[in-house]
Automatic annotation (TrEMBL):
The keyword Iron-sulfur does not apply. Keywords: DNA-binding, Transcription, Transcription regulation. It comes from the Bacteria. Residues 7-61 form the HTH cro/C1-type domain. GO terms for molecular function: DNA binding. It comes from Faecalicoccus pleomorphus. The keyword DNA-binding applies. This is Helix-turn-helix domain-containing protein.
């Protein structure tokens, strides 16, 4: 659905006229709202203002659907760097090139923490509703609990998997798809060059 159609749909759900939405946006007439709903290109700043006025997320208006409720108070927006694809399959080579930025609401953000995002590639995490092309937002950390979904570096590759640490010290990285075998990490084996990079905090689906 196009942005203009989403704006109109949400406006009608809230029972607002174009004039009423225009007033909430600070416009003097409904003309600007009508143009937006007809498909006129608008700036990112206007998208933020629309999201606030319509009480939805920027992700929703930009045709991204959050795994949690898509309607909420927007609050402040944070720009998170999106790096190259993270493998939800058998592994991809690491690339530190920033491809884009994703705007996420501050309800995901904790003060003093750092965040990054990757685009999922593959189908190994479909059992956790992570599909190819989804944008995954991670909090940078090297500490995870069993069952957490994390971003991991193994040698020259990095992957998104479910974290498990066994009593014998071995770490198991599990997929959420039975066709993929678990990855076993022995921390005593320095040749594996294993690192925990981050913990998954949000998934955004792009259509």
């Amino acid at each position: 659905m196009k942005l203009g159609d989403k704006v109109k749909q949400r406006r009608l759900e809230l029972g607002l006229t174009q004039e009423e939405l225009a007033k909430k946006m600070g416009y003097s007439s409904r003309v600007s709202i009508n143009k937006i709903e007809m498909g006129r290109p608008i700036s990112q700043k206007i998208i933020y203002r629309l999201a606030t006025a319509l009480n939805v997320s920027v992700a929703y208006l930009m045709d991204w659907e959050e795994t949690e409720s898509k309607f909420h108070s927007l609050g402040n927006i944070h720009q998170i760097a999106t790096y190259s694809q993270i493998c939800c399959g058998n592994g991809l080579f690491i690339d530190d090139y920033i491809e884009d930025y994703i705007a996420i609401p501050d309800r995901y953000i904790k003060k003093g923490r750092e965040y990054f995002a990757n685009v999922a590639s593959g189908d190994s995490m479909i059992g956790k509703s992570i599909n190819d092309g989804d944008v995954l937002v991670f909090e940078k950390t090297n500490v995870l609990s069993n069952g957490d979904i994390g971003s991991f570096c193994i040698g020259d590759e990095y992957v998104c998997k479910i974290y498990r640490q066994l009593n014998n010290g071995l770490i198991i990285l599990e997929s959420a798809n039975d066709k993929y075998e678990p990855i076993e990490i022995d921390l005593a084996d320095e040749s594996q060059c294993f690192r925990i990079i981050g913990k998954l905090i949000a998934t955004f689906k792009k259509y």
